[in-house]
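Input sequence (223 aa), recorded before submission:
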Amino acid sequence: MEQGTLATRYSQLAEESPDRRGVDLALRFLDILFSASFLLVSLPITVLVVPIILLTSGTPIFYRGERVGRSGRVFLMLKFRTLRRGAESRLGPYLGSELVARTRAEYTPIGRWLRATQLDEIPQLLNVLRGDMSLVGPRPIRPRFFEELAEDIPSYWQRLVVRPGLTGFAQVRKGYETSWAEKLAHDLEYIADRSVRLYLRTLVATGWRVLRQSLRGLVRPRK
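Predicted structure, token format:
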């Protein structure tokens, strides 16, 4: 299939790419600079969101989920909680469009709006500061799903070359319901070609996309 060929091509590029430690150090510096700045800018939003979550759905305020990070290290990814308590166990077996459909029934009163505006991801900036994640990279995935996908797609392990990202090539170019093979192809393209310019371009594209989605979420939240 064409998708498989594309994924294989970028897997080879990632394997054959020269030493990228200089680029990775520059990207890490930008991660720290931007995530700290974004946390400060978003502080007023956080101060509003936290009590609203407590009043409308109680504790916990944060969702903490295990995700596979760079070199296979498992970490706890943070988000503002947008689903009812126990939702993760009920949604655990599902992926893709089935997961999206079932998630809609699990939203807390403020959860749908947080998702629509993507404000639920503000706490992930702490993951970026700690070094668990980058602002740009393949989206983090649960350990069980990673094992399943790695068995089906031999090149899937290539995602572990870099830190997972708060945003990524696949999310900017496609969407959340894109096939795993397509997402992987775009992720591997970023890994192979990563640079400060590409990092910044992806952040700008993400900012524009989030702004459009936030406006739509404020006017007409997704059903």
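Checked by second reader. The CA atoms of residues 91 and 99 lie 7 Å apart.
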